[in-house]
Design a protein that fits this description.
homodimer, 133 residues, mainly beta, four-stranded mixed beta sheet, two-stranded antiparallel sheet, 3 helices, 36% strand
Chain lengths: 133, 133
């Protein structure tokens, strides 16, 4: 059963609507991160095959890995029942999705009321990102 | 390394702040759904060990499975680097998270510009949910 995407893609009510997009590793199924897409980010992701999000802090499109080189090759895309959440299965170039150098942004586990770092660093952020001048 | 949760849990700016919460199957690592939590939903989830979300459409707390019985037993909880997204690893009672009867709400894949149903129904929604009177 297929239905045309223009009527059944993510439901961006307006060009400014932001929807959450989950990135999951295509091989391990580890959840890597959650970011947001507006319609343009969605369209650029489809067009380029690499994840493009909308950065709420920078108020602009943000191609994942534009600075670090750790882009996300999009292998599969899923939409949820309400068409208001996107799930990307990706190949994470560089092996780490988190700007803090961890494989996943979810590198802290809540255990008995405390947060415990359970992830391992793949890279040193200070070596990967430019320092502010 | 552990840090006290009161300073390092999810960053609910106010009692009304909603943060996305991803539910992932503890065994298969399949992403089941995304919903939202406010502070009270988060606290009830911690206190009960079963997922409680905030329903934006109903404007109230929503214990997952309160009607269908398909509750989510929370096995592990993770917080992302920005402390604004929650990841729950759950045991999904009933085997289906989606109100449409699918294992996952992400039962449609975007393939070559069309949405294709790739999930299989575990239950018939009409048999599980009460019809409006």
């Amino acid at each position: 059963m297929t239905t045309p995407l223009e009527h059944n893609g993510p439901s961006f009510a307006t060009d400014d609507t932001l929807l959450p997009a989950i990135a999951q590793d295509i091989d391990s199924n580890q959840v890597l991160m959650l970011a947001y897409m507006n319609r343009e980010a969605w369209e650029q992701t489809l067009a380029t095959g690499e994840a493009v999000y909308y950065s709420r802090s920078r108020s602009r499109l943000w191609k994942k890995g534009e600075e670090s080189g750790n882009v996300q090759k999009v292998r599969e895309i899923y939409i949820d029942c309400d068409a208001d959440t996107i799930l990307l299965k990706v190949e994470q170039i560089g092996g780490a999705a988190c700007h803090e150098g961890y494989v996943s942004c979810f590198f802290r586990q809540c255990v008995e009321g405390e947060l415990k770092v359970i992830g391992k660093r793949v890279f040193d952020p200070q070596q990967v990102y430019r320092k502010p001048s």
